[in-house]
Amino acid sequence: MHVSVVGSGYIGTTIAAWFAELGHTVTNVDIDEDVVAAVNNGEAPIHEPGLDELMAAHGGDALVATTDYDEVAGSDVTFLALPTPSNDDGSIDLSAMKAAAESLGDVIAEKDDDHLVVVKSTVIPGTTAETIAPIIEDASGKTVGEGFRIAMNPEFLREGFALDDFKDPDKIVIGAEDDQAVETLNRVYEPLVEAAAGDPAIVETGIREAEMIKYANNAFLATKVSLINELGNICKEYGVDAYEVADAIALDHRIDEHFLRSGLGWGGSCFPKDVAAIRAAARDRDYDPVLLDATVEVNDRQPERLLDLLDDHTDVAGKRVAVMGLAFKPGTDDIRYTRAVPVIEGLLERDAEIVAYDPVATENMREQYPDITYADSAAEALEGASAALFVTDWDEFGALDAEFEAMAEPVVIDGRRIVEPRDGIEYDGLTW
Ligand SMILES: NC(=O)C1=CN([C@@H]2O[C@H](COP(=O)(O)OP(=O)(O)OC[C@H]3O[C@@H](n4cnc5c(N)ncnc54)[C@H](O)[C@@H]3O)[C@@H](O)[C@H]2O)C=CC1
Ligand SMILES: O=C(O)[C@H]1O[C@H](OP(=O)(O)OP(=O)(O)OC[C@H]2O[C@@H](n3ccc(=O)[nH]c3=O)[C@H](O)[C@@H]2O)[C@H](O)[C@@H](O)[C@@H]1O
């Protein structure tokens, strides 16, 4: 099939590269000329393990990028993989989606055969049918079901595991109101389902349900982490090992072992944005989402608890303090909504002299905090520090040992249960 993907960011590039790998012809549209040039040169415009190889194999060949929407006309189906960032009130900003829908409508106006438009971006229930479809109708002069069709197909991959998650998903959710759209999407995914290591469930559902499934998935996972964090905080007060508790409750298959790592909480480009959006959407309909409010409140408290623990051990004013880890999770250089930011802010309020280290996210953080010191290694960050705060659970932090000996005062405050308590360090942790 000929598939087009509008937007070549984390999601767009990943799905475009995989569709090409699965044998489809892929046209990628992006407004950013540098992104388009990278794709056509066989280079990945984003950092994701394994993507360089796929781009080298297909970029400029089975996968061709362009800034020209007219190139979409030759495809059977177009995925919209555009950003849906937060407005100040938590609702989603649909400006990129609306602009793309209008451009797509202009193309569909000139097309003789049927075209399927698939919303891949995360959008609030009702957006696809009530905002995106009417824009395409206005621009194309055609109506849904007569000239073009519309569907919603949310994405569940994680950054850092994007390729593996996309090629071997737990589920593929197809939200559509007409059989032909469902049949076309099933044909797009057929080679993926055949090649998948597991046996992905195909969930055929309504468009609004598909939109909601995505928010429910992320809200559930964020709440699961906040719940284990709340339980971990109570464990800490009673001198109970929160990780032993988590391992035991994980044996109940109704709970399972995933997303039970308590600590500094969740960040990233999606949990904060998506939980904010579904809370705002609930309030828009006069529903008070008390549990989701609490999910965020617990998450916001965790960095403060880490800083309180630090205060219990030492006064850091004028002292060198190491911030260990800046990315929102290991395996990525993404610092969006990272817990490192409230930790850095708290240290600045305390007049600490910050030295930060992350294996890959330093340059991104330097743009936001140009005035703090950045170390090139964990050992360099620890040297001469009066305290070290562990923010991201990078594996290399678990291997630190003699490096602690170079600290001025060996106060280690662990936000991610990544350092083993041992002789020679004054250890404290959020959940231990
Ligand atoms: N990043 C992730 O891990 C996941 C993201 N999502 C959702 O997928 C959607 C896309 O997110 P990302 O890929 O992370 O976004 P991104 O910000 O990485 O990439 C978006 C791309 O769209 C391009 N763009 C913006 N306006 C355009 C327009 N009018 N026409 C053509 N291209 C345009 C930008 O130049 C950029 O390359 C969001 O709704 C997000 O919530 C869903 C699951 C996972
Ligand atoms: O909608 C999205 O963009 C994606 O959001 C998350 O993926 P991602 O943000 O890449 O990262 P996760 O691995 O889910 O981690 C999110 C945050 O939770 C934290 N976390 C996770 C698990 C855990 O046990 N404890 C914990 O604190 C991580 O440190 C991280 O800050 C979801 O896992 C994906 O399914 C979804 O597609």
Automatic annotation (TrEMBL):
Residues bound to substrate: F156, L157, R158, E159, K214, F259, L260, R261, S262, G263, G267, K329, D428
UniProt EC number: 1.1.1.22
InterPro entries: 6-PGluconate_DH-like_C_sf (IPR008927), NAD(P)-bd_dom_sf (IPR036291), UDP-Glc/GDP-Man (IPR017476), UDP-Glc/GDP-Man_DH_C (IPR014027), UDP-Glc/GDP-Man_DH_C_sf (IPR036220), UDP-Glc/GDP-Man_DH_dimer (IPR014026), UDP-Glc/GDP-Man_DH_N (IPR001732), UDPGDh_AglM (IPR054886)
GO biological process, one term: polysaccharide biosynthetic process
Domain UDP-glucose/GDP-mannose dehydrogenase C-terminal: 322-421
Location of the active site: C270
Catalyzed reaction equations: UDP-alpha-D-glucose + 2 NAD(+) + H2O = UDP-alpha-D-glucuronate + 2 NADH + 3 H(+)
Top-level taxon in the UniProt lineage: Archaea
Gene Ontology terms, MF aspect: NAD binding; UDP-glucose 6-dehydrogenase activity
Residues that coordinate or bind NAD(+): D30, T84, T122, E159, K273, R336
UniProt key word Transferase: no
Pathway(s) it belongs to: Nucleotide-sugar biosynthesis; UDP-alpha-D-glucuronate biosynthesis; UDP-alpha-D-glucuronate from UDP-alpha-D-glucose: step 1/1
Matching Pfam families: UDPG_MGDP_dh, UDPG_MGDP_dh_C, UDPG_MGDP_dh_N
Keywords from the UniProt entry: NAD, Oxidoreductase
Protein family: Belongs to the UDP-glucose/GDP-mannose dehydrogenase family.
NCBIfam families named in the record: NDP-sugDHase, UDPGDh_AglM
Name recorded for this polypeptide: UDP-glucose 6-dehydrogenase
Source organism per UniProt: Halorhabdus utahensis (strain DSM 12940 / JCM 11049 / AX-2)
Species classification: Archaea, Methanobacteriati, Methanobacteriota, Stenosarchaea group, Halobacteria
